[in-house]
Amino acid sequence: MIDLKRNSKKEPIRATGLRSRACSFYSPNQKEDFKISRGRFFNFLTCKRCFYLDRVKGLDPPGTPGWTLNETTDLLLKKEFDYCRERQIPHRLFIENQLSNLVPFDHPEIDNWRDSLHKGLMLRYKNTNIILTGGVDDIWQHNISKQLIVVDYKSQAKLGRLDKQDYLEDPYHQGYKIQMDFYAYLLIGMGFDVHKTSYFLVCNAKRDQQEFKKRMNFDEYLVPYNWNIDWIENKVDEMVDLMNSCQLPSQNLSCKNCAYSEQYAKVISNKFKGDSEGIQGSLF
Ligand code: SF4
User: Fold this and answer.
1) Which ligand 1 atom is at minimum distance from the Cα of 48?
2) Would the N or C end of the chain have less CB density within 10 A of its end CB?
3) Where in the chain does DSSP place strands (E)?
4) Ligand 1 mutation target, pool 40, 46, 251, most atoms within 8 A of CB
5) How much distance in Å is there from the Cα of 95 to the middle of ligand 1?
6) Could you read off the pLDDT of 237-271 as tens digits, one per residue?
7) Which amino acids bring their CB within 6 angstroms of ligand 1?
8) Alpha-carbon span 221 to 181, nearest angstrom
9) Is pTM beyond 0.70 here?
């Protein structure tokens, strides 16, 4: 993926590969608070080296384009659920799924908790300077037990009907479960009573329609998932230890980006052998 660095006027500018603000990365053993989002924690689980280069060494990795269609389903769902939240009534999906004891959770912080870029759920990790954060899509509440239910909206476009078991077992969806575990961990740490079952609200765009005509139709599914937070603290401890160390961890050997970078480095160093001015930097 080619990602050009641009300024606020969208003009291409020189990319340095480094973050410019020192406060956006961590110095081993620093005393000041430092936020680690759910996404960064997931990066740690996927590749410790990339996490370290990003969070501790301040490398600025290429970005990915925004998922504007997915974001639009999230936005419209949010409006539907907010309508029910204000009135404390069950959403139509609750009634269709025999969950009419649920209502969207009404809490003064709900907008902040859903703001994954700037706020999100927040929890100081044990007595460290690490603040764990995560922007949740929604939280519902059982109106008798008052327990909270963690919710994540997902949009996709696959042929046929969704099988809930297959959905959870799909290797590409393992990160979704981690996401849910992490949100449950944060909410429990913040003092809330969280119901064991969370839900993925999956919107599947129907690909078997005969025409577009300015409409895309979706099926909706509520996929229940029983979260598990038992594993989280061991991994966060590992992550904090890594952040406070000065050793570069090993890479994920399945990563195509690293494999590409290594091949790139070989090609460039052969081409410019003896001409060090021609090479713009070294990789790892
Ligand atoms: S293997 Fe390399 S490029 Fe891939 S995630 Fe890890 S450090 Fe980053």
Assistant:
1) 6
2) N
3) 34-37, 102-104, 121-124, 130-134, 138-142, 148-156, 197-205, 218-226
4) 251
5) 45
6) 999 999 999 999 999 999 999 999 999 999 988 87
7) 47, 49-50, 251-252, 255, 257-258
8) 20
9) yes
